[in-house]
Amino acid sequence: MSPMEKSSGPTGRSLPPDRSGVDTEKPHPSEVSLESLATEQLVRTLAVDQDRAVRAVEAVSAEIAAVVEDVVAGVGRGGRLVYLGAGTSGRLGVLDASECPPTFRSDPKTVVGIVAGGDRALRRSSEGAEDDPRGAIPALAELDLGMDDVVVGIAAGGTTPWVLGGIAEASARGARTALISCARRSMPPGCDHLVVLETGPELLTGSTRLAAGTATKIALNALTTSVFTRLGKVRGSRMIDLRATNDKLHDRCLRILCELFPGLDRAGADQALHASDESLRSAVERLESEGRVAD
Q1: pTM for the whole thing?
Q2: Which of 63, 99, 278, 285 is catalytic?
Q3: Which of 5, 63, 130, 285 is the catalytic position?
Q4: CATH topology for 51-232?
Q5: Is 40 an active-site residue?
Q6: Which listed site, 43, 44, 213, 246, has its alpha carbon 20 to 30 Å from 139?
Q7: One pLDDT digit (tens) per residue for the chain, 295 residues
Q8: Active-site residue, 290 included
Q9: Which ranges in the chain are annotated with CATH 3.40.50.10490?
């Protein structure tokens, strides 16, 4: 019997798969006694342990870049990036998806986050939902996936049935697929890209909202920022498709215009922005059409 298959115990009920071999479930090598640490030392220990999350993402830059290229090609033809995840992984996917429209002025339907258990699972844990390998199928069917879509499953331990079943279903529907895992594993059925963020065991054993969660957030940030940079939503190191919908964004738009066009003051920048329906990109194009040269 495979370690990841269920078995029966003496009570007659089925036992869960043995996940002791999964990297994120193993005890931390330091075997530190967290409760014995002074509070400041505890906080410092937890913070320092996050360093490996950055290294884990950097180590698989090429693998993430391959996913980026697939997404750029698909979205360029009208496709979507769809995140699938349960628990912390699902919430991180929804968070990243929700940040794309205000950051890049993308269509809210371009990057979609789906979490096991539905939107209510964003605030209240719905742990049992992740065990159903067919659980993601209704949401994927509703999206009417096609060959221009890319579905990225997120599973810290790399074994979540809901995520793996969703990847297989997405592949069967013609979409490109990827799995982001923080534990070493082989390529799952129907998966085109495997991205393994090797964060290793957690300081709090099995709590993948720690190093695994941090690495996942960094990876998703890198993924969507790279995608929209390639799609022309970034100029230099600046967001160029902003709309001044509140004071913070209004100020940011003015500062970007003044930085791009030396000699332009805030009043002139505001005039151009107002004449461009509060669109930063349109304001830049307007100023360039007037003969101003941008840096």
Answers
A1: 0.90
A2: 99
A3: 130
A4: Rossmann fold (3.40.50)
A5: no
A6: 213
A7: 445 666 655 666 888 888 888 888 888 888 789 999 999 999 999 999 999 999 999 999 999 999 999 999 999 999 999 999 999 999 999 999 999 999 999 999 999 999 999 888 888 877 778 889 999 999 999 999 999 999 999 999 999 999 999 999 999 999 999 999 999 999 999 999 999 999 999 899 988 999 999 999 999 999 999 999 999 999 999 999 999 999 999 999 999 999 999 999 999 999 999 999 999 999 999 999 998 877 7
A8: no
A9: 51-232
